[in-house]
Each structure stands twice: as structure tokens, then as C-alpha cells.
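Hello Y.,

Per our agreement to keep a running log of every chain we model this quarter, I'm adding this entry. I've kept the format consistent with earlier entries: sequence first, then predicted structure.
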Amino acid sequence: MNADPDDTRPAGTPVDDAPTGTSARFPDELIRPFVIGTLSVLTLVQFVERPPVRFAGITWGLVVVTIAAGVASSIVPWRHLSDRMQITLVSVFMAAAAMLYPMSGITAANALVFLASVTAGEKLASRRAAFTIVGAGTAITATATWVAIALLHVPDVGTWWISLIVGLPLYIGLARRERADAVAASDLAARQSRRAAASEAREAALEERGRIAREIHDVLGHALSGVAMQLDMADALHAEGRDQDANEAVRRARALAVSGIGETRRAIHALREDTLPLPETIAHLAHGGTAGFEIQGEPGEVRVEVAQAVIRAAQEAITNAHRHAPGAEVNLLLDYTDRLIRLTVTDTGTAGPFARPNDSGSGMGLVGMRERASLLGGTLYAGPAESPAPGWTVRLELPR
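Predicted structure for the entry above:
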């Protein structure tokens, strides 16, 4: 079986996820050729056993044309035919079957005109063409039957009024076509849905990779850059014979590495917390950091990258508060507005330009947060609290 070029299912997907049109094509591909083949064989057998008494040449000619047109309408790839060719083929089938009807006696050939009516309704895209062909076929059948009975006195002609209802199967054909169109539309919608789902999955994967890349850049990138700078400095100092200063640079490099490891662990924790709503995640961080927490506004949905930035800022601010203002009271405020989400972290430590020494950490956490906020169209403030309140404030504002 050839692969469907529109099928975006990954390998190993169960078979019952196959397009719904597969079962719908069964009637067209098997049942119709079976019916026309059966009627054709029965007709030929019956005419061989009981050859027509009158107009044998005309009757055999109509049999051949009718069977050929019927078989062609069932096995020829219909979509490869032009509209004109489709109408011509069905017209020939209908006209030949209509004229054969009174000449065939009581045989299986009588059913061919009814099958032609069904074919017109099911195969032709134009309803006007289908009704025109079937209407003309009904008229031809009725006229030929009357001529055969009244003028030509053909034996074994069926009941004349049956010729008036040969057009009724047209509605069966129309109903089958509408069902086939509905199944095809459903099949197309299912394939489009699968393609959309696959596209969304790829987009989500790319977005997640981008988030992880930003985490690596913000945490490991800054930490490793600092370590490299300190080691380069240590190497230069050692070359100048300043061994004490070189050793101090090595110790600073070690401190940067230790701080980077801690920030990496916090980043991994933040990534795992994405499954929780943002307020619950921030509350969990506040509780773990012995900090107060309050929410203002109506919590709502925010973008994943925005939530990640808020979580990282909360982690960094709580860590810095405990590092640089031990014993200070720390409070977090998560404020939702119509367009913004704002995180404010305050502590009651001593304010002032030299209140936040950086020799115990990398000093790059807030730099990374500012870069992340800028990429998201927001701002990050980190500095002394507004006078006269003591302490330090970190405020992150991001568009929702």
C-alpha cells in the first residue's frame, strides 16, 4: 500500500487512526463493478440461451454499448475524466439502456436502465446534468416501450408503466454522492487536524528548546564566562609573579562556579514547576524561602515564557535577599492587571549603594533577568526601596 503524502502520523500509529475515507471508497471500488459485472454476465447468458426473435442485430448492438458504457463508468478513474467526458459516458449508458429496455424481454438487462439512473445521480457533479440525462432517459424508455408494444409488437415487453419510474433511482445516486462528499470532507478535516496538531507539537517543542536555551544562556553562560575571566586573570597575575592575587582570582572563579551550580539547580526546579499555575509556583517558592506572599488582581493565563521569567526573578530575588540581608523580612507581591503582570520582591535589609556586595556570588543573575525581561518587552528594577522605607526592592513588569 502506498503511503498517503498528506498523512502526518508518526511511525507506529495504530491502524484505526487511518483516514475515514478508506471504508467509504469500498462501495465505489468493489460493489459497483460487482453489480454491473453480474448484470452483464446474466444478460449475456440469457441472450445466448434465448436469442432475440426480432431486431436481433439492433438488440445485440444495444447490449454491447450498454454493457461497455456501464463497465466503463464503474472502472475508469472518474476524476481523470473531464466534465464533458463524464456527461457523455453517462448519457450513452442511459440512452442505450433506455432503448434496450423494451427489446430485452424479461431479462437482467431490464435492471441496467435503473443502474444508469443511479450512476447519473452518483457520478455527475452537476445536478442539472444528472436530472436532464435521467429525465431524457425516462422519456426515451417510455417512448421506446410504447413503440415496441403498440407499433412493433415486440414480444415479452415488460409492463409499460414500469418505464415511467426508471428515473426514481436517481435520488439513490444523489444520496450516495452526498454521503461520499461528506465522508471526503470529514477525511480532509481529519488530515488537516492531524497536520495542525503535528505543527503545534513541533512549535511547542521549538519553544521549549528556546526556553531551555535561554536558561542555559542565563545561568551557565554567565557563570562560565565569569569563571573564564577570573582564570584568565589568575593566569596573567601568576605570570607577573603576583601569586597572592592570582590565588584570589582562582577563589573567585570557584565561588562563581559554586554559584552557577546553585543557579542551575534553581533553573531546573523552575522548569519542572511549569506544570503548576504561576501563583501556586510563586507561593511554593515564597514558602520555601520563608517569605511572605500576596496576590493582587485576578489571576489569569500568561504565556509560558512570561511565567518562566517571573519564576526565575522570584528565585533570584529571594536568594539575593537571604544572601545579602540575612534575617531580613522578605515579601513577594504578584500583581495582575489587564495588560501587565508585576512581581515585586522587597526585604527590610539595609539600603544604600554599598548594601549589596557581590563577592559571594556571580552578580550575573539580575543581569540575566534584565536581558530576559527586555526580550519579552518588559522591565526589571533592582535597587534600594523608596525612601523612607529601608531595604531593597526587585520589581519585574512584563506584558501578559
